């Protein structure tokens, strides 16, 4: 491939990966999607010698269409998934301003990605292209294979469905990063001290704890509900592991998260939804296959310890 075309693709690649991740909620699949877009770009531009008038629109369309197909297949696989399926955590560059941090948390948080599961693959693609990537309706129409009028309807209905799903779970805008950080620091301190009342005080009365263990057994059979039960689980974990367990704070998916280590090994990642100053929902990612890409972070943190 010519240097100019290669440079063009590399410049657009982050956008393609971003589309893939928001569609598939998988870091590796998003990377694979971008690689496949690269191969199709190479075949279209270099092999066939075709002229692409709008390279960015062409690449976004191709990537979106492939993502729709992959998500249809993924939804079938997830029906046989052992236990609850949750997204892969995403390590991102730090936002440059508080405003960018809040904007990022709005469109890539665990809560948002889970919320998007209420949409069909086609509707999810149209919604994301319009609401997150600010695509024009003609580009959305090309990506989902419909007329522009039909694309407008798909986006409109998707927005309604997302709003309904958000209201049904009482989903609120995330707190400011510093507020979230302060609360999680208090949670880590309370767990480390084994202070049951302090742990429980940070959890909403009807808090939920949801977990993705993949093939690991034993696993939680169903979500834990209730701040008291979740606090008991945190305390039991502390009593079991003691000083061999630690929590580190880092930013994943645009929000503060807890990385739990047992010994030197990264054991799990916990993401949080906070409402009215208390933890309303915890999502724990325990599946090793979904934590593999964070191992370099764990290694770096061990070196710094």
From TrEMBL:
Domain RNA polymerase sigma-70 region: 8-75
Residue ranges of domain RNA polymerase sigma factor 70 region 4 type in the record: 111-161
Biological processes, Gene Ontology terms: DNA-templated transcription initiation
InterPro entries, per the entry: ECF_Sigma-70_Domain, NTF2-like_dom_sf, RNA_pol_sigma-70_dom, RNA_pol_sigma70_r2, RNA_pol_sigma70_r4_t2, RNA_pol_sigma_r2, RNA_pol_sigma_r3/r4-like, WH-like_DNA-bd_sf
Pfam annotation, one family: Sigma70_r2
Molecular function in Gene Ontology: DNA binding; sigma factor activity
Highest rank taxon of the organism: Bacteria
Subunit text: Interacts transiently with the RNA polymerase catalytic core formed by RpoA, RpoB, RpoC and RpoZ (2 alpha, 1 beta, 1 beta' and 1 omega subunit) to form the RNA polymerase holoenzyme that can initiate transcription.
Protein name: RNA polymerase subunit sigma-24
Species of the source: Variovorax paradoxus
Lineage: Bacteria, Pseudomonadati, Pseudomonadota, Betaproteobacteria, Burkholderiales
């Amino acid at each position: 491939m010519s240097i100019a075309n290669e440079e063009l693709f590399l410049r657009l690649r982050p956008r393609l990966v971003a589309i893939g991740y928001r569609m598939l909620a998988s870091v590796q699949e998003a990377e694979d999607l971008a690689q496949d877009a690269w191969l199709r770009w190479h075949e279209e531009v270099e092999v066939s010698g075709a002229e692409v008038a709008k390279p960015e629109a062409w690449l976004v369309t191709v990537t979106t269409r492939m993502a729709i197909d992959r998500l249809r297949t993924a939804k079938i696989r997830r029906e046989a998934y052992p236990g609850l399926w949750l997204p892969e955590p995403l390590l991102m560059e730090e936002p440059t301003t508080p405003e960018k941090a809040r904007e990022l948390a709005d469109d890539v948080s665990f809560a948002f990605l889970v919320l998007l599961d209420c949409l069909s693959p086609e509707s999810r693609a149209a919604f994301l292209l319009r609401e997150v990537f600010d695509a024009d309706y003609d580009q959305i129409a090309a990506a989902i294979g419909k007329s522009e009028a039909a694309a407008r309807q798909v986006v409109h209905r998707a927005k309604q469905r997302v709003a309904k799903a958000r209201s049904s779970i009482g989903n609120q805008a995330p707190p400011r990063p510093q507020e979230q950080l302060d609360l999680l620091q208090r949670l880590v301190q309370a767990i480390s001290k084994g202070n049951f009342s302090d742990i429980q005080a940070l959890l909403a009365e009807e808090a939920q704890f949801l977990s993705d263990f993949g093939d690991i057994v034993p696993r939680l059979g169903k979500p834990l509900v209730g701040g008291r039960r979740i606090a008991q689980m945190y305390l039991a974990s502390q009593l079991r592991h003691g000083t061999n367990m630690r929590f580190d704070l880092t930013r994943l998916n645009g929000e503060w998260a807890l990385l739990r280590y047992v010994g030197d090994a990264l054991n799990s990642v916990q993401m949080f939804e906070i409402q009215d100053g208390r933890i309303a929902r915890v999502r724990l990612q325990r599946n090793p296959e979904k934590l593999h890409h964070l191992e370099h972070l764990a290694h770096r943190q061990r070196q710094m310890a």
